[in-house]
Design a protein that fits this description.
Length: about 270
């Protein structure tokens, strides 16, 4: 009996020791978990170490949408050439002739209309993006929303010019003469936009040291555009001495005043 009692006591003692040992193990694992969580919290609260990165400026060359717009404008130009079947370039050459007459195109009316729409869209986009880049001031954001507004203003200017052509031209001249000059004007405008397209690419992606020379080139092209336009204006409208007064009135009403208003609006939205 004594031996049996000793064995029972020994078994009870062993059971209690095992249970206590497991409890201690559990408490240690809990302590390790809490310590791990505390170390993670401390690491998360510490400020980042190392060199800080430099934020990329919002410039035309850094904006992906600018590249997409330039690509679309180039595709518009190529599409206009394909739709015109070579008539677009022939029409531009005919514009420089003294006896230009609109309506002699050999291309179908639908293709010619599509070609004109594409080249007008291309011109509006080129002028709008170039103006936005000219007037952009760092460190502002070069945004697509501003480009969209600029396109709207430029399109409104095109429509205003078309309306003024009809309003002023038909008062002083016959309809055929006004129509001829209207097409001459938009042909010159399209040519001006096409010449500006490579300038726009360079102005967007070249270093800042290129900016001033490209702006001077753009100014020279603009002066050449208005010199050619004035020469054609005289060739088309100068039929009598009173026509000089009409030409002066045209330049003031359809060129100088609308341009002043246009650039004022550009400054407000950009």
């Amino acid at each position: 009996m004594p031996a049996t009692d000793s064995i029972i006591k020994l078994i009870d003692t062993t059971a209690r020791l095992a249970t206590d040992t497991l409890a201690v193990s559990d408490s240690l694992s809990k302590a390790d978990s809490i310590a791990g969580i505390d170390s993670i919290k401390r690491a998360a609260s510490l400020p980042p170490s190392g060199m800080e990165g430099i934020k990329l400026l919002s410039l035309p060359a850094n904006e992906s949408w600018v590249f997409i717009v330039l690509l679309v404008l180039f595709l518009f130009f190529v599409g206009s050439l394909l739709k015109s079947g070579g008539e677009f370039l022939q029409n531009l050459r005919s514009t420089f002739k003294h006896n230009y007459t609109w309506g002699t195109s050999s291309v179908s009316t639908l293709n010619y209309l599509q070609s004109r729409i594409l080249i007008i869209l291309c011109s509006v986009g080129i002028f709008s993006l170039l103006i936005q880049e000219f007037l952009f001031v760092m460190p502002g954001n070069f945004e697509f929303k501003t480009f969209f507004l600029t396109v709207g203003v430029t399109s409104g200017f095109y429509l205003l010019k078309l309306f003024l052509f009809q309003l002023v031209g038909n008062v002083f001249f016959d309809k055929k003469t006004v129509l001829n000059y209207q097409n001459i004007y938009f042909n010159f405008l399209s040519l001006f936009a096409i010449v500006l397209l490579p300038v726009l690419f360079l102005y967007t992606y070249q270093p800042l040291s290129w900016k001033l020379p490209l702006e001077i080139i753009t100014g020279i092209l603009l002066v050449c555009f208005y010199i050619l336009l004035t020469i054609k204006l005289g060739q088309v409208f100068y039929t009598k001495k009173l026509a000089l007064f009409y030409i002066f009135l045209y330049l003031c009403t359809l060129e100088i005043l609308p341009l002043l208003v246009l650039f004022r609006v550009y400054e407000l939205i950009i």
